[in-house]
Amino acid sequence: MLDTSLLANLPEHPDVIAPDGSEIRLLKSANEVSSMVHALLHPGTTTHAVHHLTVEESWICVAGEGELWRSNDAGESVLSLTECTTCEIPVGTTFQFRATGNKPLEIVITTTPPWPGDHEAVRVHGKWAPSV
Predict the structure, then answer these.
(1) Residue 66: beta bridge partners?
(2) Which among 11, 58, 89, 122 is placed 20 to 30 Å from 51, CA to CA?
(3) Which structural domains are found in the chain, ordered by start?
(4) Cβ-Cβ contacts under 8 Å for 104 (sequence gap 6 or more)
(5) pLDDT tens sequence across 50-107
(6) How far is residue 54's CA from residue 128's CA, in Å, rounded to a whole number?
(7) What pLDDT is stored for residue 2 in this prediction?
(8) Which residues are CB-contacts of 125 (< 8 A; sequence separation ≥ 6)?
(9) Side-chain-side CA neighbours of residue 128 (13 Å)
(10) What secondary structure, in 3-state letters, does the chain show?
(11) Of the candidates 81, 2, 96, 80, the residue with the CA atom closest to the CA atom of residue 48
């Protein structure tokens, strides 16, 4: 029989506000080597730029439209985010994102290793002025 204890609907209100300013809803997972969240950014808003000290992230955009700016020693780029776009945020990469469409930008994020706490994300200067 399948374990249904991990099934849940997204809560209406965020569990926390991330250091970058996005709304975070925690997702249940049986996986102990990573953590998973649902991030939401309202239309017309831009996060604070951050970089992570020890974790990497894998993203899949599940709704909305936006842009993701990433910068590291290899260079910088701006990626368009639309439904089903996937991307990686390597450790130490500076990044910032914004919601450019008429609906909220929604992203499911897996963090490896599991998110250790807000001290992990260091705010830095970004490409755009933050509005959250």
Answers:
(1) 81, 99
(2) 11
(3) 16-80+88-124 (2.60.120.10)
(4) 40, 41, 42, 43, 63, 64
(5) 999 999 999 999 999 999 999 999 999 999 999 999 999 999 999 999 999 999 999 9
(6) 24
(7) 66
(8) 49
(9) 21
(10) CCCCCCCCCCCCCCCEECCCCCEEEEECCCCCCCEEEEEEECCCCECCEEEECCCEEEEEEEECCEEEEEEECCEEEEEEECCCCEEEECCCCEEEEEECCCCCEEEEEEEECCCCCHHHEEEECCCCCCCC
(11) 96
Q: Which position has the token pair 């450019």? A: 100
**Residue holding tokens 């017309």?**
44
Structure tokens at 110: 């897996």
Q: Which residue do the tokens 């807000």 mark?
A: 118
Tokens linked to 61? 């955009």
